[in-house]
Design goal:
In the C-terminal section; belongs to the Mrp/NBP35 ATP-binding proteins family. In the N-terminal section; belongs to the MIP18 family. This protein has 405 residues and is an alpha/beta fold. Helix content is 34%, strand content 20%. The structure holds adenosine-5'-triphosphate.
Length: 405
């Protein structure tokens, strides 16, 4: 097997003509740094913002060209607008960009060829509205996509995502989970999955599977050190690829474990994917609640319905006596939810069981399905699904097929 190097990739890319068929994209300085990990090649191509949409074939040509290089197992190419190769990451906070809509010039990613249908990032300039969920390209076979988000890290978002996914499944739905936390993927550990997903027909990726859940995570594809140096457009491209180039099959619901915060990944999801809604995870502490509000505001700005708030580590259950202690000022999230008018989806206690089963790759909903924690997660899941069904009815989209007894 030939070892692929940056020089080999750049040499191959010299055969790709620039826009208007002048020169080649390498000599024109349009190609970013090239990252190679395990035979997969990642880079972006800088194009004028106003031509991003029109130049998608250039992106596709570059991707094909690299895929044909011997030893290359895959290529992921993103278009970046208005930036020179090798520039520092964009300084502007992505959260601020949400209000400007997807059309501002310095941020016009053309997305991915399979993102198709070119909604969102390529919207016309001049205050264009966000596409509504119904207008955005869905994922074939996937009924509803739910984002699980938090304003800050460490509040138990991933623990909540995985148990929520398993609880939705326990309630009778077909469920997948996408770990979009590119900088700190946790699904491989939480679900005890290792190894790499296989490609089918050289194009679609077959998701990994455990406990009946279809699972995709950046952690299966890319070393963490590589992901750490990715810039916005590459993250977006990777996310879109994980959504659209994975053979999810028939799913009632895809749960997306978002990275913490209100950055690029959230915006991509919200802008390009028809999210049925977002679940916000918060702890009772005031600070986390303030951050949760930021998350709420972001989803509202991009017109993604907020399905509700889950209060995690809501109270403590003593392992010896089973007594409950409201040591964290329990109830903060519920009050906050009521105040801002979003549904309260439930409180999950802080228990050793939840922590230990997460660490062991056997989430509590599957390892102790009769236990109190599993019951609480199933209740949360039922409320989430109620909201999804209600929101779908509100927006006139086809209601999900399955109804709880
Ligand atoms: N209800 C709970 N009871 C006990 N431990 C919990 C609970 N929820 C989460 N934890 C533990 O808290 C830690 C952080 O949880 P988790 O990784 O899910 O948070 P996160 O918000 O996704 O964090 P990050 O932002 O780092 O991805 C983990 O060790 C997890 O096992």
């Amino acid at each position: 097997m030939v070892d692929v190097t940056r020089d080999i990739v750049l040499d191959a890319l010299k055969s790709v003509r620039g826009p208007d068929l002048e020169g080649n994209i390498v000599d024109l300085g349009m190609v970013s740094d090239v990252f190679i990990s395990d035979g997969k090649v990642y880079f972006s191509i800088t194009v004028p913002a106003d031509r991003a949409k029109e130049l998608d074939p250039l992106r596709a040509a570059a991707e094909r060209c690299v895929k044909d290089v011997p030893g290359v197992k895959g290529a992921m190419v993103a278009l970046t607008a208005d930036r020179k190769a090798g520039d520092a990451p964009r300084p502007a906070p992505p959260a601020a960009k949400a209000s400007a809509g997807p059309s501002h010039s310095s941020h016009a990613h053309a997305g991915h060829s399979h993102a198709g249908h070119s909604h969102g990032s390529s919207a016309p300039a001049g205050g264009a509205r966000q596409p509504t969920a119904a207008q955005k390209a869905g994922i074939p076979g996937v009924g509803a996509i739910i984002a699980v988000a938090s304003g800050k890290g460490g509040v138990g978002k991933s623990t909540t995502s995985v148990n929520l996914a398993l609880a939705l499944q326990a309630n009778g739905l077909k469920v997948g989970i996408l770990d979009a936390d590119i900088y700190g993927p946790s699904m491989p550990r939480l679900l005890g999955i290792s190894g790499r997903p296989q490609q089918i027909d050289g194009r679609l990726i077959r998701p990994m599977e455990n406990y009946g859940l279809k699972v995709m995570s950046m952690g299966f594809l890319v070393d963490e050190e590589v992901a750490m140096i990715w810039r916005g457009p590459m993250i977006q491209s990777a996310l879109l690829q994980m959504l659209r180039e994975v053979q999810w099959g028939d799913l009632d619901v895809l749960v997306v474990d978002m990275p913490p915060g209100t950055g690029d990944a959230q915006l991509t999801m919200a802008q390009q994917v028809p999210l049925a809604g977002a679940v916000i995870v918060s702890t009772p502490q005031d600070l986390a609640l303030i951050d949760a509000r930021k998350g709420l505001a972001m989803f509202r700005k991009v017109e993604v319905p907020v399905l509700g708030i889950v209060e995690n580590m809501s109270y403590f259950i003593a392992p010896d006596t089973g007594h409950r202690y409201d040591i964290f000022g329990h109830g903060g999230a519920q009050r906050e939810a009521e105040r801002i008018g979003v549904p309260f989806l439930g409180g999950v206690p802080l228990t050793m069981g939840i922590r230990e089963t997460s660490d062991a790759g056997t989430p509590v909903v599957v390892s102790d399905p009769e236990g109190e924690a599993a019951r609480i997660y199933r209740e949360v899941a039922a409320k989430v699904w109620e909201q999804v069904t209600a929101k779908a009815a509100d927006t006139g989209r086809a209601p999900p097929r399955i109804v709880f007894e």
